[in-house]
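Lab notebook: predicted structure, single chain.

Context: the supervisor wants predicted structures on file for every construct in the current expression panel, including those that have not yet been purified. This is the next one on the list. No modifications to the sequence; it matches the entry in the shared construct table.
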Amino acid sequence: MSSGSENNMSPEHLPNEQDAEGTVAVPGADHPFADPGLPAHQPRKQDIDEKAAKRSERVVAFLFLLSMLATVGFIASFVAFPVDDIRYVWPLGHVSILHVMLGVTMGIALFCIGAGAVHWARTLMSDVEIADERHPIAADEETRSKVFADFQQGAAESGFGRRKLLRNTMFGALALVPLTGVVLLRDLGPLPEDKLRHTLWGKGKRLINMNTNEPFKPEDIETGSLSFAMPEGLEYEDHDFNTEIAKAALMLVRIAPDEIKDQQSADFGVDGVLAYSKICTHVGCPVSLYEQQTHHVLCPCHQSTFDLSDGARVIFGPAGHPLPQLRIDVDDEGYLTALGDFEQPVGPSFWERG
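Prediction complete. Output recorded below exactly as produced.
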């Protein structure tokens, strides 16, 4: 800036800056940036007409009640509609009616709580604007007293204590909405019902070699060998093959009868051929590492070790239960068949397991 322009700049043209004598220039009433102050308060209809206030109160209560009904509808939809009930819903197309109902009911429940709170604040709570000066973070006793007084005044002006209908319906809506999250816990996975206790094995089902896809005969299994079988009727092309084989996978071992320590295991087998679940009872890994001299089988995931000559008893590792054994026999054509399902649930332990 040139010296000429500096001479043309007078103190009155420098608002809020110090002049040559060190005093602060404060804008006057005619200054273009003067503080206009707060406009005069205009009362709302609800402030001067109690009937209008009661109407607003009923509207807010209705919204809170509608939220509660929507929450109940959310829970009822979860029970009433199966997830695989697919219907055409315009404009969404073919969708699960359960997902649509959950979205609609939860949306209504949350929207009505928000709309009710907003309508309450805009029509019934005090709308008088208050200007307050900034103050240091560490408040003195006078400031703290003022804060508490302002809070009590705000609570009184909100009608929270006086308008019990609003207060109670709001509490009801807020208490019910969290139930939607509790119900949604079911979507962490399908309810197991009794699926964990049953597999595809059943009386008369042949043991199918998973390598050749042919049924086993006792002579197909050599002493000291380990073979793997699946139930008759299960095909690799089946859409649920992986789900079913994860429970029904079987391993066959042949042990000399005089080396079998557990008599029940021998009774469940045929000529030293024993059939055990391949699924580790720790976290469900496939058990497959067999040592024929000791008859021990090892899970490769966490080294749980089972003694197949002693009812697949756990001798090392974190597994909590022996491998379930399948009772087998030979049919009229000489093929190995199951005499039923496993007597214990296969795979990892769960708290209902007997």
